[in-house]
Structure formats: C-alpha cells, structure tokens
Automatic annotation (TrEMBL):
Residues 1-77, 93-170 form the DED domain. It comes from Seriola dumerili. SUPFAM superfamilies: Caspase-like (SSF52129), DEATH domain (SSF47986). Its EC number is 3.4.22.61. It is found in: Cytoplasm; Nucleus. Belongs to the peptidase C14A family. GO terms for molecular function: cysteine-type endopeptidase activity. It catalyses: Strict requirement for Asp at position P1 and has a preferred cleavage sequence of (Leu/Asp/Val)-Glu-Thr-Asp-|-(Gly/Ser/Ala). The lineage of its organism: Eukaryota, Metazoa, Chordata, Craniata, Vertebrata. Pfam families: DED (PF01335), Peptidase_C14 (PF00656). Keywords: Apoptosis, Cytoplasm, Hydrolase, Nucleus, Phosphoprotein, Protease, Repeat, Thiol protease, Zymogen. Residues 204-328 form the Caspase family p20 domain. This is Caspase-8. Its main location: cytoplasm. One of its GO terms (biological process) is proteolysis.
Amino acid sequence: MDRLKLSHIDEELDSSEVAALRFLCLGIVNRKRMEGIKDAKQLFLRLEENGLLDNGVFLAELLHTIRRADLLSLLEADSRRPEETDARPTLSPYRVMLYGIYEDMTTENFEKMKFLLSSKLGRRQIEASNTALDLFVEMEKADLLSPTKLNDMHAVLKEFDQQLALTVKRYMDEVRQQNPTRVPPPPHVSMVFQLCYYDLNHNPRGLCVVINNEKFLGEELKDRGGTQEDANVLKSVFSRLGFTVVVHNNLTASRIRSELRELSKNDFLAHDALVICVLSHGEKGCVFGTDEKKVGLRELTLPFTSKNAPTLARKPKLFFIQACQGDGYQEGSVPCPPRPGEEEVRHSRLQEDAGPVRGETVAWDADFLMGMATVPECKSFRNTSTGSIYIQELCRQLIRSADSVEMDDILSVLTRVNREVGKGEYLTHKQMPEPKYTLTKKLVLKYV
C-alpha cells in the first residue's frame, strides 16, 4: 500500500487506538513481533510483512472495528468492507469480542475486574495493566483466557456487569454451535464464528419513519379507521427503543416515493439502523397511496440498498407493512376461540386493508427485514377503534422483549407475533403474518 496514505492514517490515530489495533492483531502477527510497537507506522510494517496490507481489506476491517471509519477515505479505492469484496477476512472474532468488552467497560468496573483477578494473576501483572486490553493479554499469558477458554472471563464479568457477561456467553454459544467438538479455531478464523449481533451504540439509534394513510381520495378504497392507533403505538414504542420517529400522514403514491428518495440521501453514519412502517391498503407486492395508485414493495426498499445509501451498508433496515396482500382469506382447520383480552375486538369493527389491483413482488438485498402483516394472496385485519391486529401485536412483543432480561432478537419477536396473531379469529377468518429477511446478524432492540 501507499506509504504516504499509511503515514496519514498514523497521524490520525492516538495511542489508545494504536494499542487497540495492536491487540486485535495478536494471533495474526507473532506476539513477540508486536512487542515494542508504539505507533501505527510500526504496526503497519508488521502487517505488511504478513501480507495483510496487499489490498487494504484487513486494514479497513481494523479501522471499522475501532470505529474509525472516517479514515477509510485515505485507503485505496478497493478498501471496502470484506463483505463487499472477494477477499477472505482474517480479523479474529474472539479479539473483536474482547475489544467490544473493553469499549463498554467503565473505569469502575475495570478496577473491580483487576481486584477479582488478583488471586489468579500476580501483582506485577495487575499493576502493569493500565487498560482492560492489557489485562486480557495478561490473562492470556497466564492461560486464563483463549478463544476456547472463556469461563474465567465469564465468571468475573458476571460479578459486576451482566451485559458484558452476556457478550461472552453469546460468543461461547456461537463457537459451541459451529464447533461442537470445541476444536480451537485456526488463526485465520472464518467469519462464521464472528459475533452475529448488529451494533447498536448510538443515541438515537436512527430514524423510524411511519407512513400513515387514513384518508383516501378515490371511490374504491375506504378510509382506514383505527390506523391512528397504530401510528401512535409505533411512535411510542420506537421512541422508547431509541429511535427518532417521524410520522407522515396521508401520502399519495408519488409522495411516498419522493419522501423515501429524500430520506435515502441522508448521511446515516451516526445511525445504527433504519425503520420504515407503512400503514395503508395494499395488494400482492404493493401498497397504495391515498390517490389509490400503487407503490411496489421493491420501490420501498430500493432507495436504501448499499448502492443507493452507502452509509446504511451493513446496518439493519426494517420495514413493517400493515396492508393486505391479496383478496383471499386464510382459514383454520378447527375453530379457534379468541385470545384472552380480545373480547372487545368486535367483528363489526374489523375491516380489511385490501385494494383493487395486484402488483409486483419484492426484491431483496443484504441486511433487510420486511415484516408483512399477512402472507401473499390474503387479507389482513384492522380494528377501527383499537388499530390493526398485526401492528398492535408487533408493538406488544417489542415491549415484552425490551422489558425482558433475555436477549431476544427481532426474528424471535416476529415468531411470537406470528404465533399470537395466528391464534386469533377475525370475522371468522385467520391471519398469518410473514417476515422476509436478508439480515446477516442478530438484531436485539432494547430501551435506551
């Protein structure tokens, strides 16, 4: 790589960031060769010796991990994230996990950790550890810590920080699932072992945009009574989950397209995720604007692909669609009683979010989730006073997950939504939601 570019990167990194890079490279570069490195230029020489700077991919992964993506512009044009190239990443997920713990550990908890480890590490090792990364290295030297030896780390973290302990447990479970014989992973470990959780570190997490169509301008589609209840609960829940919520009421098809195009032009670098909720009438593969013209589901997602919105690359993009997807009804094999607490959902107040025509199906790109209120060809139901069956259940399950100590990911939440909605009976018919996704990691939404 261009030495001048590497020199510029070196000038932008402080000593703590260099220490983090050095830690992340342990196991890839011989530990002895890493001793004495004080600045990034020396580290780059070691990486160059190991052929890790040939195309900039490994360095790009390092910079992303320490949250210095702003320096990627100094790399060559092909220095993209590993998922966007044919290069095989070599950054150890074990070290990425430990680095994440270091980032989230408070000074108070670091001192507690040193105290708890003082019986297993010598006084010299404890006093030489100025940061959690130093302490991890000393634990490795004492054979208390390795990619397949994490019980001591987990036990210590449980004493003062359950969330950090859970991070270690996730990693242990992931390794156990992928490698049940517990054979130590090779130095260049596959990305399949990487911690599969999306980062949610910013506050606010990102935007939640709600398109709420209630009043329709033509003669074929009825107004959607009760949709304001859906908009209200979505705003309440996603605000608590750390999102900035924007509600657009009564948009025509062209306005839906233009609002999403403008939204896609935003700089999402400081955002962790994007949520878009569309509440309207619909048919297979489309939703309707208030002018009764259709907008394909593909048109909703296309502006936010990594090509069109590069600062959303590798970040989850969630779409929740409350609309019918056909004019058919789902039937159950046996009669099902209403769920507890739903007696007030009167048949006279249930309506369908159906439309008069059919459209195209949706195309997918990485890190998208589309939660549909119903399967293709079928209607979904909405109570004119309490809101739609799907959105109300979705919000109940998001609240349940956020309140729980368990780390339920979004797919677990949507599975419960499927189960609960599927239990009910609406105008003597059934409804079954359908999530479609190309998420590449687990997404856990908690209150901020």
